[in-house]
């Protein structure tokens, strides 16, 4: 009985140590989350406006034949995958990879992983990787996104792949993050919405200098960099929110486990004391 009580006591101390770690990780994620959330919400209008503007130009202008706007002959896909840097974030990374697997089924593709978990995932599976340079998503800045965009545009023009898609986690709220795959190039892949009739007069309202094709081709790398940076901001906020939720649940579970272990320990201790009293009484009666 004494050995059993000692094991329970050690188990309680172990769970308490784990609980302190999960609580600390929850507090760290919470402190970082506010800033990441604000950055994601600030970037989101630029993300959407940039996308709708380029889409409007591609749909509303027939005066040019940009390689970025015409229908792709090469069906190979390049996925820009924005994963996390660390684990202990619930299903954040696994849900992202499941979304990618569902979208890439039956397709020939390469990946540009951003984040340590994404890089490790594709290395284990032997998927062709465009570059391993961006292994830490927290260190990716606007300049890095522009460098990535220029590299992707160059490979796209050379015909190494015919589609570029962004796989990231969309930050909806503190408790909800949705992984999704977003088509970036070519712009002809994007379906025309019903309200896009307002975009038709654009070619009459805009004068391009020196010509529409040159202007459009110069804007596309900026467009791609903006979308990637927006995805990075959304992904960082989603990862922190997922980690905060996971660590909060882990802390609560640890507290419940400690309560159960304390109850078991007290019962065992009470049983041990009762047994000792019974032995003393029996010994006294024997005398």
Structure, described:
This protein has 287 residues and is an alpha/beta fold. Helix content is 62%, strand content 11%. The protein has six helices and four strands; from the N terminus they run αβαβααββαα. A four-stranded mixed β-sheet has the order 2-1-3-4, with helices on both faces. Residues 191-204 have low confidence and may be disordered.
Keywords:
287 residues; alpha/beta; four-stranded mixed β-sheet; 4 strands; 11% strand
Tell me the layout of helices and strands:
Layout: H1 2-60, E1 77-82, H2 92-104, E2 109-114, H3 116-125, H4 142-157, E3 163-173, E4 176-185, H5 202-205, H6 212-286
Helix pairs in contact: 1-6, 4-6
N- and C-termini, Cα separation: 27 Å
Sheet of most strands:
4 strands, mixed
**Strand proportion:** 5-15%
The unreliable regions are: 191-204
Order of helices and strands: HEHEHHEEHH
Structural class, from helix and strand content? Answer: alpha/beta
Characterize the overall form.
elongated
Helix content range of the residues, please? 55-70%
Q: What gyration radius follows from the Cα positions, in whole Å?
A: 28 Å
Strand order of the largest sheet: 2-1-3-4
Q: Helical region count?
A: 6
* Strand element count: 4
Give the overall pLDDT as a whole number: 83
In brief:
The protein is 62% helix and 11% strand. The chain has 6 helices and 4 strands.
